[in-house]
TrEMBL record:
It comes from the Eukaryota. The keyword Oxidoreductase does not apply. PROSITE patterns: SET, TPR. It comes from Hyaloscypha variabilis (strain UAMH 11265 / GT02V1 / F). Keywords: TPR repeat. Residues 357-530 form the SET domain. The lineage of its organism: Eukaryota, Fungi, Dikarya, Ascomycota, Pezizomycotina. Coiled coil: none annotated. SUPFAM superfamilies: SET domain (SSF82199), TPR-like (SSF48452). This is SET domain-containing protein.
């Protein structure tokens, strides 16, 4: 079984060859099958496959440790459906063709077996109206707030179905983009009243079934929209209740709009209290979105309606602190660190604002876009602070490190699949963030789905293949040596240099970037993506993970060293590291360390390396200085 840590895969040559061959064979089979008619599947056989797979999955833990790593193929993208659902032409399973994306078509199917939940996918068996059955699989993005999407409903619309073969060559309806699978809710069809939907929503909320509560309130709201009774108390109640659920599931955009839509603005005591609550919910959503001016306005309204509310006063004060941070870049880092230490959860989000006023984005020739300084910045001074867009910490349930085989460059990589999943979920939940996220650099850029989706009044549609490539090129680990990974939207524009002018530190999920030397206004800000002192290893990581060759002064100088010189330097550095790690302290060790330092120094051409640091020397030199102090 292959194992990994964040950037290294421990694969034997045989495992590597077997994996590549499997993936290549599979794509070959798929190509050969393309366009062929579907062989009808037998429901009885499918049912027994579900039972068998379920038994097997019980033996394979859902969230394995680092050693149990899953592998899947990437680099063969297709866009999600963006058409209006009512514009799609219904089809039956019998019309499916192998290895085909059935564009402008929709399948309506019913789930007829339990769901088999595996580490990267979930699958089940579905039937259409005519009784035909097929396997339906959701890959990677298979959960919505911890609930399996296939388990959350019985009737589904599969938009623009993609019919292909699964892991074992079995015919499969495969869903990659979560927006291509729509759960059909039947409340409207059952002619329920909005009041009934509210009651059912409240009951679901009581049982902590937040997604069901959301669906019930939404059904209620659809019913009031249809009946035109949008100004009645029931409408305001449904919006207010859904705002509460939205806050709990982190759908902040809708939490804010729902809370504001629930305002009655009526002068009666009951309504004043409800409106005060609504302002609290809108303010909380705005605060969590980092919209502090809006949050402050909402908390002030909350206080105006309910002057005795001390919490509102405290919230206004806290929001003002955030506004001060984003305007001035002055933080109480000590207090922030202490608050994180006090927290029982290690992966806590820092309660701090972003400070980004000193930087701007512009083209960086040969490197796409980069981040630049707006004004002069002193060495040690703060450049910027940024809260993460999304982090998945190593010990979280949703953490998942996978191995990907990329058809485009025939490479196997370690990939933070858990982060990719979490980013997709966050974007589905908060469409206001889609534009910024999709603007980040990635190798694959699909069609601009956002405009089409808005035109066709579709709920959030996310191209998961584009998100995959964005995460692959922009994710960073806030905790070295662990598989925790996150995405910072603005810091994602910072290009690499082996001689960087900035250094980052993390306080929880707050990235704090400081200048390591004076930076002039207009100068590009850089940081080191990889700190390896070994030229070949560094080049390999930069190419494998970020897809470029570094041409900084240091790399230009190192490139000219012969392979023999680089090997000698590497061997000497290894010897020096072994000495440091042994923890020896005697005079002999110091003599040996000094000799090694001299020999490493000797591998650098004095003229070519003039003014450049000797990275391979740094560790042993530091040790010699420390040893001298003892
Ligand atoms: C985190 S993004 C940095 C922002 C990116 N340049 C952009 O246009 O959005 C990482 C990508 O930037 C490019 N990049 C970063 N540093 C580079 C460098 N020193 N030389 C060439 N390309 C670089 C690579 O394409 C890399 O995958």
């Amino acid at each position: 079984m292959p194992s990994s840590n964040r950037n290294t895969i421990y694969l034997t040559p045989e495992e590597d060859a077997r994996l590549r061959k499997n993936f290549k064979d599979r794509i070959q089979t798929r190509r050969e099958l393309s366009g062929q008619p579907r062989e009808p599947s037998d429901l009885k056989t499918l049912r027994s496959q579900v039972i068998y797979a379920d038994l097997m999955s019980d033996m394979q833990p859902q969230s394995g440790g680092q050693d149990a790593i899953v592998a899947y193929a990437v680099g063969d993208p297709y866009p999600p459906c963006v058409d209006a659902v009512e514009d799609l032409e219904p089809m039956g399973l019998g019309e499916l063709r192998m290895e085909t994306h059935h564009r402008e078509r929709v399948l309506i199917v019913k789930r007829v077996t339990p769901v088999v939940r595996l580490k990267v996918c979930s699958w089940t068996v579905v039937q259409d109206e005519s009784g035909d059955a097929e396997r339906l699989e959701v890959v990677l993005h298979k959960e919505d707030h911890g609930k399996d999407i296939l388990e959350s409903g019985e009737m589904f619309r599969v938009l623009e179905p993609y019919f292909t073969v699964g892991e074992q060559g079995e015919p499969t309806l495969r869903v990659d983009h979560p927006s291509d699978l729509v759960v059909v809710h039947t409340d409207r069809a059952m002619a329920k009243t909005a009041e009934r939907c509210k009651e059912e929503g409240n009951a679901a909320l009581k049982q902590q079934n937040l997604l069901l509560a959301h669906a019930k309130y939404t059904s209620g709201l659809e019913i009031v929209q249809d009946s035109g009774t949008t100004k009645e108390d029931i409408t305001f109640d449904l919006y207010r209740n859904r705002a509460h659920v939205n806050l709990r599931i982190h759908r902040l955009d809708e939490a804010k709009t729902d809370a504001l839509a629930s305002l009655t603005n009526l002068p009666y005591q009951k309504h004043i209290e409800l409106d005060s609550k609504a302002y609290f919910r809108a303010g909380t959503a705005a605060y969590q979105l980092g919209e502090y001016q809006e949050a402050k306005r909402c908390f002030q309204e909350q206080k105006r309606l309910n002057p005795a509310n001390k919490d509102a006063t405290a919230r206004i004060r806290k929001t003002e602190q955030r506004i001060h941070e984003e305007e001035t870049g002055s933080y109480n880092f000590k207090k922030l660190k202490a608050s994180l230490l006090l927290s029982s959860r290690r992966e806590i989000a820092a309660d701090a604002a972003c400070f980004t006023r000193n930087v701007f984005i512009k083209a960086s020739p040969g490197r796409g876009r980069g981040l630049f300084a707006k004004s002069n910045i002193e060495a040690g001074e703060l450049i910027m602070c940024e809260k993460s867009f999304c982090v998945v910490w190593e010990n979280e349930q949703q953490a998942l490190t996978s191995m990907t085989y990329d058809f485009r460059d025939d490479r196997i990589r370690v990939f933070p699949a858990g982060l990719c999943r979490a980013v997709v979920r966050r974007l589905l939940d908060n469409p206001s963030q889609v534009g910024r996220a999709m603007d980040l650099y990635g190798d694959y850029r699909g069609p601009d789905v956002e405009q089409q989706r808005l035109k066709n009044k579709r709920e959030a549609v996310i191209d998961v293949f584009q998100v995959h490539d964005i995460v692959a090129r922009n994710a960073f680990g806030p905790e070295p040596g662990t598989s925790s990974a996150g995405l910072w939207m603005l810091a994602s524009y910072i290009n690499h240099s082996c001689l960087p002018n900035s250094e980052k530190e993390y306080i929880g999920d707050l990235m704090v970037l400081r200048a390591t030397r004076p930076i002039a206004a207009g100068e590009e800000i850089t940081h080191a993506y990889d700190l390896s002192s070994d030229y070949d290893a560094r080049m390999e990581t930069l190419m494998r993970t970020w897809g470029f060759r570094c041409d900084c002064k240091f790399c230009v100088a190192e490139k000219k060293d012969s392979a023999a010189v680089r090997k000698r330097r590497r061997d000497l550095e290894r010897e020096a590291s072994a000495l440091v790690e042994k923890g020896e302290t005697g005079r002999l060790a110091v003599v040996k360390a000094k000799r090694l330092a001299r020999e490493i120094e000797g591998t650098f051409d004095e003229e070519r390396y003039s003014g450049l640091p000797r990275m391979a020397l740094m560790r042993i030199q530091k040790w010699i200085v420390e040893a001298g102090k003892k």
